[in-house]
């Protein structure tokens, strides 16, 4: 609201001043006009995709490798391998020791990082434009020549075990891990990213090298650039450093299983711990994949349900109908609606935290009543509000070369192409209340749900009672 008001005041002020000018305007130096920035893609002979968005006036760049492999590409026995490799990537290669690697990055003033998700592994660097070739050289070195020394493996094993302990203290992480585990039981997507502690203790160098051999192949990798690096230059670097990558992944049992469509299973998992002063509950239906035609409709519907945080000053006025009910009746400390997508499925739902333990059932009831309301009673005003929030969120998230690189890599790895911000805005603008209600009827009304609950959850009713709320007539 404040930014819109500011823009309006500026526009009115400029119009007012322009009408009263009686002296000629002295023109300053002109800024060169640049056309709309476009994402360019090239595929090398071995199948590696190179994608970039060149900004001619940017002085820094982000380059990275997005890989179509994460914890979903593992087996039960090797779960945790992808994340383990991420830790070992910066511990030395056949060309550079760990100290040389760290000094090289420090001397450039660059930043080198990596992360693992259920479906992707990413290694990226941020640096001045003139240092991009050196960064690409480092990336190819850690991806293709990591030494994976036994001493480094043992050191990182302890680090990852401590990280696992820290994650177990973060209730939101725990709840969402259990939500995946129950919604996708006995399936690759249901595993955690870090893996069970016994796996972390037992992972061997052989399993690590096999994961690289089976998954770090050109057909599943995208070299991404954003900022001041021209596309042609990035293609030349890719041809120089990555031409030797194997062109295709071997069709191992783990690979075939990771590409099999995940089946959503209506079920629940509950971990009651009365020493935790809050009830932490996630409820989800099966959502949409990255490529689903309803992908953006799911996000708009999620935005209608909205978010709530009692600690914020604007808590009574957070826009959505559900937040008003929750605040008026003090039903929750916070809640967050979510729409999480994967290559062939997704989770659409809500995560709630409350210390009002006597009214846990009311919180769940009113949340699911809001879901069923979306199936037949959505106003144009709330759809427009949700669309405005979604567009602002997407555009604001593209601030900086790293964010742009992330957007390019994620979209191309998961969908095969990148939608421009303008294209996304047009798709969102076209969504109507009718689309939202059709989505809700298809994905929410009388659908099975997955429930994950941790903490003081004695007041949470049983699964069948909650499931019955999914087809409530007011």
Model description:
With 474 residues, the protein is an alpha+beta fold. Helices cover 44% and strands 17% of the residues. The chain has helices spanning 2-19, 81-88, 98-108, 132-144, 150-168, 171-183, 197-202, 205-215, 231-242, 253-258, 295-305, 321-328, 360-373, 380-396, 401-415, 421-429, 433-443, 463-468, and strands at residues 39-43, 49-54, 60-67, 111-116, 121-128, 221-227, 267-272, 279-286, 307-309, 334-341, 346-354, 450-455. The strands form 2 sheets. A 6-stranded mixed β-sheet has the order 1-2-6-3-5-4, sandwiched between helices. A hairpin with a 4-residue loop joins strand 4 (111-116) and strand 5.
Count of helical regions: 18
The spatial strand order of the largest sheet comes to: 1-2-6-3-5-4
Distance between the termini: 34 Å
- The proportion of residues in beta strands is 15-25%
Number of strands: 12
Specify the structural class. Answer: alpha+beta
Shape, per Cα inertia axes: globular
Report the average pLDDT across residues.
90
> Residue share in helices?
40-55%
Order of helices and strands: HEEEHHEEHHHHHEHHEEHEHEEHHHHHEH
For the CA atoms, what is the radius of gyration? 25 Å
